[in-house]
What does this fold into?
Amino acid sequence: MSTRDDDILDFDFFDEEEPPTWEEPPEHGSGPPGGRGPRGRRPRFRTPGNLTPLLRLIALIALAILIVVLLAVWVEGCASDRKRDRYGDYMTEIGTIGKASAKLGQDLSTLLTTVGLNQEDLDAKLGGYLQTAENQLQKAQSLTPPGPLHDPNEGAIEALDLRVLGLRGLRTVFQETADAGDATEAGLRLAAQSQRLLASDVVWTDFFQAPSDAVMKDEGVEGVEAPSSEFVTEDDLYTARSMAAVWQRIQGASTGGTPTGLHGTGIAYVKALPSGQLLSTTTETTILVTDELAFEVGVTDTGDSQEVRIKVTLTIPKDPDPIVRTATIALIDPGETKAVTLQVGALVPLGQLDSVVKVDVDPVQGETNTANNTAEYPVIFSLAP
It folds into this structure.
């Protein structure tokens, strides 16, 4: 091919394409000998040559778009992770405070149901509890929650503040009634202060925990939950009747007196769970064994005084070691029956004709009749109904 033809077919992608042109025919008689006349000449067009540069450009554009999309996804993921971490860190901090506050509530329950507790020891303990509760409140107030959690955080602060007020109120009433003689009046006043402790659990749940979970759901925060904090686990401890009995017991211990009146507890019933079968001391009971097997023991206050910290023990003989389970009833009022559940599962001896379930209830202070504190129930444990 001639040099002119090469020039015509040369293609530069970035040059603007020119319209086809006609090549002027040579003047008459000027053509090569034997050449074609004007009628034989045809127009020549510029035609694209190699398409590789165009394809390369398209590929580069597609790659750039992909990189932008991936970068946007990565940035969004990083932002989501940062948000989750921010919410998670706050929930960990407030959760630590809430857990410690709940432990304080358990300590208070244990204190008020301690046998032999006197006024001096009570006041010292309550003073320490009050200071601990105030520190917990201050820690919550110093937290910086994510913006949308501002109102729920205020709910947690309000709950902790109620616990401070309740503890302070209980301590004040115990101090002011130390030399009083009316247990009923003291019980009413103590119960009134205790209502703040009961209310604190409601406030924590309704104004912190539930709203926090709702906010995190709206914000798309996954894998983070608002913590609970239950200060009162024994609701019946804080009734006017129970608090009057607590006050009487503390006053009695403070004056160095011995328990007066009738004191005692007794086994009311024993039943297998989940079947609900009542056990008998005279008739053998066949019990279906499952992983959920447990025994419910009902205990009655048979005296005329409130009893506290009542230990219940269940024993099933088995070689080489017996199965032993224990539980404690925090408080029980005269004539009242309370139950504890002791889990045993499928560890019991199967098929033995002489198997028994033995239940023991520790005597309370001042109890003289312990005949109804121990009982044995003949049973057969079976895997088939």
Summary: The helical segments are 3-9, 52-112, 119-141, 150-176, 183-218, 240-254. Confidence is low (pLDDT under 50) at residues 1-18, 20-26, 28-38. Residues 72-254 form one domain.
